Amino acid sequence: MTQQVFLTGITTTGTPHIGNYVGAIRPGIAASKDADKQNYYFLADYHSLAKNEDPDRIRQSTLEIAASWLALGLDTDNAVFYRQSDIPEIPELTWILHGMTAKGLMNRAHSYKASVQANTESGGGDPDKGVSMAQYSYPILMAADILIFKATHVPVGRDQKQHVEMARDIAQRFNHHYGDILVLPEPVIDDSTAVLSGLDGRKMSKSYNNTIPLFAPEKRLRKLIMKIKTNSLEPGEPKDIEGSTLYEIYRAFASAEDTAAVAQAYADGIAWGEMKQRLFECINEQLAPARDEYERLIANPSIVEQALRMGGEKARSAAEPYLAEIRHAVGVRPLA
Ligand code: TRP
């Protein structure tokens, strides 16, 4: 049996928040320590160009995401941790895959369709208004990310499932045409990892501006937690854990035992202020040690740069010979 290869990318457009931590970073770091699995994690900085991001923001986000994963103890000896743009084989493969990707397949991508629908509804006459080619062919770049490392398993959120399926479709078509060269990946969606709600009760997301940054300084962390939306039940009135953002976040951080105790406290009518204080203490206790390391790394970007370059070299030692094989297969070959 071929070895399982896990690979996942993080787009460099924002500051990591506790929803990212619970949904992707924490499980990713745990998996990085599993010696039986090959794990690739990377910063998808080229993907962040699909939507005209501010250049300084991309750099800052790359630093913050990398520093977060490193500070939390990512095992960079066992796993390969790198930056997409350090691997020139990725954009090369992206172009090669363009030849094996039906335009119609890209027309069906959810994110592209959402843009077209929004344009159509606004009645401006151009369904492609504001859509860059990078947004349109985003799934092909993502396919190259995955295929260049022969990934078999791609842990992603639900919203990215279609992209992984597209990578599989593209690889299949490639293999049909050129022979059995690419490895077919499959998406891995873990429904047991929590999706956290944000300050306003909607899904925690950068686009809703309702996040709690993972390494907010202690004071700010407390302030944000105090802002989490609750209902107007008074202290002493029994409260429902169902639909309570505070409870949901608490559960994602606390032990089963402490979570059960809090559920009881809800039934007994805990005051919202007290619950917020408990949540703050729980999160702060867990994140404080890594926060010190995070701050050290943010203040010393050369350490992070060094870690990414080393990861990039490791990654390229796999990508380079494989791309040579792929180029040969498609007929881009030395003449003599
Ligand atoms: N598109 C993914 C996201 O927005 C990030 C990503 C880029 C990715 N390349 C990938 C995820 C390859 C998995 C595999 O979340």
Write the layout of secondary structure elements.
Elements: E1 5-11, H1 18-32, E2 38-44, H2 55-71, E3 80-83, H3 89-98, H4 103-107, H5 110-122, H6 133-136, H7 138-147, E4 153-155, H8 161-178, E5 186-188, H9 218-226, H10 245-253, H11 256-267, H12 272-299, H13 301-330
Parallel strand pairs: 1-2, 2-3, 4-5
Helix pairs in contact: 2-12, 2-13, 3-7, 3-13, 7-8, 9-12, 10-12
The structure holds tryptophan (TRP).
What can be said about the biggest beta sheet? 3 strands, parallel
What hetero molecules are bound to the protein chains?
tryptophan
Classify the helix fraction into a percent range. Answer: 40-55%
Based on secondary structure, the structural category is: mainly alpha
Describe the overall structure.
With 336 residues, the protein is mainly α. It folds into two domains: 5-195 and 300-330, Rossmann fold (3-Layer(aba) Sandwich); 215-296, Orthogonal Bundle (Tyrosyl-Transfer RNA Synthetase), CATH 1.10.240.10. The chain is 54% helix and 7% strand. The protein is built from 13 helices and five strands. It has helices spanning 18-32, 55-71, 89-98, 103-107, 110-122, 133-136, 138-147, 161-178, 218-226, 245-253, 256-267, 272-299, 301-330; strands at residues 5-11, 38-44, 80-83, 153-155, 186-188. A three-stranded parallel beta sheet has the order 1-2-3. It is globular and about 80 Å long. The relative contact order is 0.14. It binds tryptophan.
